[in-house]
Amino acid sequence: MARPPSPASKGKAPRTARGEKTLRKILDAALAEFGQRGFHESSIVGITRRARVALGTFYTYFDSKEAVFAALVRDMSSQVRDHVAPAIEGATDGLDVERLALASYLRFVVDHKEVYRIIDEAEFVDPQGFRTHYETTAERIAARLAAATSKGELRDDGDLANEVRAWALMGMNVFLGLRFGVWSHEDADEVADHANAMLRKGLES
Amino acid sequence: MARPPSPASKGKAPRTARGEKTLRKILDAALAEFGQRGFHESSIVGITRRARVALGTFYTYFDSKEAVFAALVRDMSSQVRDHVAPAIEGATDGLDVERLALASYLRFVVDHKEVYRIIDEAEFVDPQGFRTHYETTAERIAARLAAATSKGELRDDGDLANEVRAWALMGMNVFLGLRFGVWSHEDADEVADHANAMLRKGLES
Question: What range(s) does the HTH tetR-type domain occupy (chains A, B) (predicted)?
């Protein structure tokens, strides 16, 4: 795979391992700042204080508060993807992939409750980043479902059905994460098993 | 059913039909103002100008910009519920209820695209209202599913399964509305049919 573009603003990508580490510290501090205070109440000084870096260091990597927020949205999106990817490797079939992906996502949000605040606030602060996050996530799910369909595992109801399924699964995962990961806690595997039974054989008795 | 509390601030409920009409005008104007400009850029003057009422009239009914926003969240939540309720009356069984509810919701959001901006921004402006909206919506779905289960229509996997199903359905509906109602348009019945086939018999071939 191609190396992903740096989260830094244009022309400000770090050139050393030490620079990469500082950039990471700023992103982690931005997550804590935006996650706790929201975009409007957050400040660059609040971020640099949390990261224990000088104000000038911030501007070495980012142009503005908006820029670091947009970088954080892409970063959280990648973190979710990278957390889930290894969890689905032992799946027995296409629907088992979705069960493992949901269980892994539920565990991720318990430890990263701020992810909801960040992605949700992006709708207002960084609308394009918000849309890209959900579109790329849905495309990833749609590709997995299409692969399982072409193997004959899933009923083939055409392209629109595949896209409807992908967006339905994503919405399901987002709301199960909010309810059973952020607002209160429930065993991730048990929740994922119930959701997966619905996907596998439906709800009819 | 008990009469719902007035959307007006405490002690400011209108006492005449004319007052009710003015309150409605203010809420509709608030929807346009908040929907287009977002909470932070919106102003009470912007709302009264759109509603063509005097600034003092606003304060006859609401204490603040926060108060009218919170009232609008409850109002949109009720509008969704009231729009969907008659659509599900002709349902043939419990899962047909969910098909008709989704199709009706998809039609609603095409004509009320601002509903997403309002409910989503409530997470930051009126967190309690945001949570109440989703919790009451999920409770409504859970009650419908539990009724269908007790009639023997749906597989009974216990209380947690019923709650997981309700939150999964709600998330599915929210994201299908965003994708196929707000961001682009697709035939509501076709989308609802595909989603419903998944709920009814699952995805396995």
Answer: 20-80
Q: Give, in words, the CATH class of A71-200.
A: mainly alpha
pLDDT at A2 > cutoff 80: no
Domain B69-201 class in CATH: mainly alpha
Rounded to 5 degrees, what angle do the CA atoms B29, B34, B37 make? Answer: 115
In chain A, CATH 1.10.357.10 covers 71-200
Q: Which residues of B, range 76-115, sit inside 8 Å of A by Cβ?
A: 95
Residue A158 has pLDDT above 70, yes or no: yes
- Over residues B153-170, the mean pLDDT reads 97
Q: What is the ipTM of this complex?
A: 0.94
Q: Which of B156, B172, B201 to mutate to test the interface with A (most CBs of A within 10 A)?
A: B172
Taking the Cβ of residue B171 and every Cβ of chain A, the question of whether any pair is shorter than 8 Å is answered with: yes
Tell me the nearest-neighbour CA distance from B137 into chain A, angstroms: 12
Residue type, A33: E
Q: Which of A8-12, A100-104, A178-182 has the lowest mean pLDDT?
A: A8-12
For A38, the closest chain B residue by CA position comes to: B124
What is B16-59 written as a DSSP string? SHHHHHHHHHHHHHHHHHHHHHHHHH--HHHHHHHHT--HHHHH
Residues of chain B with CATH 1.10.10.60: 13-62
CB contact under 8 A, B170 and A174: no
**Cβ pair B161:A194 closer than 8 A:** yes
In this prediction, residue A3 carries a pLDDT of 58
Report the chain B residue with the minimal C-alpha distance to residue A151.
B205
Q: Shortest Cα distance from B16 to chain A (angstroms)?
A: 38
pLDDT tens track for B46-88: 999 999 999 999 999 999 999 999 999 999 999 999 999 999 9
CB B146 within 8 A of CB A144: no
CATH topology of domain B13-62: Arc Repressor Mutant, subunit A (1.10.10)
- What tokens were used for B67? 């108060």
Asked if residue A1 has pLDDT above 50, the reply is no
Q: Is B154 helix (H, G, I), strand (E, B) or coil?
A: strand
Q: Tell whether the model's pLDDT for residue A180 goes beyond 60.
A: yes
Q: What share of residues in chain B are helix, strand, coil (percent, to 5)? A: 75, 0, 25
The predicted structure's pLDDT at residue B6: 87
The CATH 1.10.357.10 domain(s) of chain B lie at 69-201
Tell me how far apart the alpha carbons of residues B111 and A162 are, in angstroms, rounded to a whole number: 25
